[in-house]
Amino acid sequence: MVGIDLGIVLIVEDDTTAQQRLARLLAELAGKHVHVSFVASISAAKAWLASSKPDVVLIDIRLPDGSGIELIAWLHEHHPRIATVAISAWGEQTTVLAALRAGAVGYLLKERKDAELSLALQSIRRGGALIDPFVARRILESLPLDTVRPKFRHAPHHSSGALSKREAEIL
Asked: What are phi and psi of 3, to 5 degrees?
């Protein structure tokens, strides 16, 4: 799998504290070679994207002028080579799945510690598709059990505990 360059990153986030935190984490990860820009709305992101092409766009789900999921879908349709990552305070399964279906390569929760977010961003940078582990666990727990584990036939049980002749030969 091919990694994602972090040369130019657009952060679509209306909270300036979150913007600065993400910029700091990206700078720690990619060094001085990363150029980070910020916008606070979907309309500002589309205007910015008319003249610039980032490698990655980190998108908050709840923005002043709409859902970040709409922007993820728009980017996936109009700029499919740009990687999009949803970053949100909201981890509901329906929201996460909607973002992934729209084209996001990851879904991260803002509430995570810096070290956790940094590892997640590093995984995405290497080409991984990361979902916050706690969100992933809730999604897995909601799946019916037989879709998660294949059905295996049980091996015959030896009441004596001794190996069969064939088992002994194999050993």
From this structure: -75, 175
